[in-house]
From TrEMBL:
Gene Ontology cellular component terms for the protein in this record: extracellular region
Protein name per Swiss-Prot or TrEMBL: R-spondin-3
Protein family per UniProt: Belongs to the R-spondin family.
PANTHER family membership: NEUROHYPOPHYSIAL HORMONES, N-TERMINAL DOMAIN CONTAINING PROTEIN, R-SPONDIN-3
Keyword Nucleotidyltransferase recorded: no
Subcellular location as annotated: Secreted
Domain (Spondin-like TSP1) ranges: 116-170
Record organism: Anhinga rufa
Annotated region described as Disordered, given as residue ranges: 169-243
Listed SMART domains: FU (SM00261), TSP1 (SM00209)
Quaternary structure and partners: Interacts with the extracellular domain of FZD8 and LRP6. It however does not form a ternary complex with FZD8 and LRP6. Interacts with WNT1. Binds heparin. Interacts with LGR4, LGR5 and LGR6.
Length: 243
């Protein structure tokens, strides 16, 4: 072993030196050179940092740099994320997406163009005019549909979701709202009148029953006095002694 090489290293190093840091790594760790000013220091990591990809060999595992426009990559020729200003497409970082694709600024990828899709039309509505379905001959009817797929930035815009057309119906009279309201008012008054009549009858019945009860109570109070007076008069009557 070289005099500058130490066996008692820290941070995952298998061998190291005071000047160059790690020279080799423990199993499964990746060796990568980090630049500090004009100096490069070897370090051992469990995974490669951003801008690097890992390669495994029988004697050593290394982190190699991605292309300049890649933020992360699987291999040098296959990017998984691009740096700002580039769009990812099939492992490559492009400044402009190919024809038939559009740039997605949210994912920073080239994606397929999505066109708008609408559902089938609904049946035509009943013929109406000013919100009514009676009292006219010519009116309008409408039909609607829903948007089932909204378009992407470069996709075809959505069509109209409603249509209207003229319609002709057999004229029919509308029930007058005032007449109907008058009938409802008369029914309500009649109902209130009947209820008032029943209430008055019940009140009269209660009053008559109360009067009868009071009369009976008065009779019960006066009858003992009448019997006493009758008995007294009978005792004072003259006795016939002619016989």
């Amino acid at each position: 072993v070289h005099p500058n090489v130490s066996q008692g290293c820290q941070g995952g190093c298998a061998t190291c030196s005071d000047y160059n840091g790690c020279l080799s790594c423990k199993p499964r760790l990746f060796f990568v050179l980090e630049r500090i000013g004009m100096k490069q220091i070897g370090v051992c990591l469990s995974s490669c940092p951003s801008g690097y990809y890992g390669t495994r060999y029988p004697d050593i595992n290394k982190c190699a740099k991605c292309k300049a426009d890649c933020d992360t990559c699987f291999t040098r020729n296959f990017c998984t994320k691009c740096k700002s200003g580039f769009y990812l497409y099939s492992g490559k970082c492009l400044e402009k997406c190919p024809d038939g694709l559009e740039a997605n600024n949210h994912t920073m990828e080239c994606t397929s163009i999505v066109h708008c899709e609408a559902s089938e039309w609904s049946p035509w509505s009943p013929c109406t005019k000013k919100g009514k379905t009676c009292g006219f001959k010519r009116g309008n009817e409408v039909r609607v549909r829903e948007i089932v797929q909204h378009p992407s930035a470069r996709g075809n815009p959505c069509p109209a979701t409603s249509e209207s057309r003229k319609c002709i119906v057999q004229r029919k009279r509308c029930q007058k709202e005032g007449k109907g309201k008058k009938n409802r008012e008369e029914k309500r008054k009649k109902s209130n009148k009947d209820e008032s009549k029943e209430t008055r009858q019940e009140s009269k019945g209660r009053a008559a029953r109360r009067q009868n009860r009071e009369q009976r109570e008065n009779n019960n109070k006066t009858q003992p006095k009448k019997r006493k007076v009758a008995n007294k008069e009978q005792n004072l009557a003259p006795v016939d002694t002619a016989h």
